[in-house]
Amino acid sequence: MDRTSCILVVDDDLTNRMVVRLLMSRRGFSVHEAASGMDAIDKISSTRFSAVFMDLSMPGLDGFETTKLIRSQCGSNGDVPIIALTAHTTDKNFARCSEVGMVGFISKPFDPEQACTTLSLLSNHGTMM
User: Could you tell me the pTM of the whole model?
Assistant: First the structure.
């Protein structure tokens, strides 16, 4: 994956978004933020991202519903690889992520090495743009 890739971080918690932005920016990624599911849909509708890190537990639209809407409403940008970012690492969540079209899973607290490894694996398997 090209290290100048543009990543969207979707999380309702400002601190979580800042941590991901800081750690991934240090690794050469361009990082954008969305504070809600609707904000993410708006951004993805107008901007081509290389990947999305999606929090699963957000008020309003959670990460599952947001992913479904991105897949159905964002046209050609709706095929962006979406990677779950959550502290709730259960088998049930793994299965739900796959069902809605997520392609990866990163546990919180955020580990930039795990994120880079996941992005690299997706890139090597042709899942990323």
Answer: 0.88
Q: Is the pLDDT of residue 110 over 60?
A: yes
Is 129 part of any domain? Answer: no
Q: Is 108 exposed, middle or buried (0-12, 13-18, 19+ CB in 10 A)?
A: middle
pLDDT digits (tens, 9 = 90+) for 50-64: 999 999 999 999 999
First-to-last alpha carbon distance for the chain, in angstroms, is 8
Tell me whether residue 94 is in a domain. Answer: yes
- 64 in a structural domain: yes
| Residue 37's CATH number | 3.40.50.2300
- Report the candidate in 47, 51, 35, 48 with the shortest Cα–Cα distance to residue 116: 51
Is residue 35 in a domain?
yes
Return the half-sphere exposure (C-beta side, CA atoms, 13 A cut-off) of residue 104: 24
